[in-house]
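Example record

One chain of 105 residues, shown exactly as stored in the release files.
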Amino acid sequence: MMVRAEFRNGGLSGGDTPSPFFSVIILNWNGKHLLEECLDSVLGQTFRDFDVIVVDNGSRDGSADFLREAYGDRIRLVPLDENLLGREQPGPGGRRWRLDRVPQQ
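Predicted structure tokens for this chain:
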């Protein structure tokens, strides 16, 4: 499981809705047993101007269903059919290449 924070410029996104100051991006692959502790910790922060995006890389352990049931609209779930973010191409360039291919919602 990998956690990344992405800072935003504090502008408006899509009209009247202010965008959060930053996004916490959690990459998951068959880590259902770790998700509750991780997300409860992130969501339990006193600072609230952020959103949480969980990219599930084709997990086969029920992670996506667990996330939908337990966290609903408190997170943004990006379920992938396969592990697009594997480590065949290590390094920032390889990760950026893969993130560019994550479906937009």
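Notes: The radius of gyration is 14 Å.
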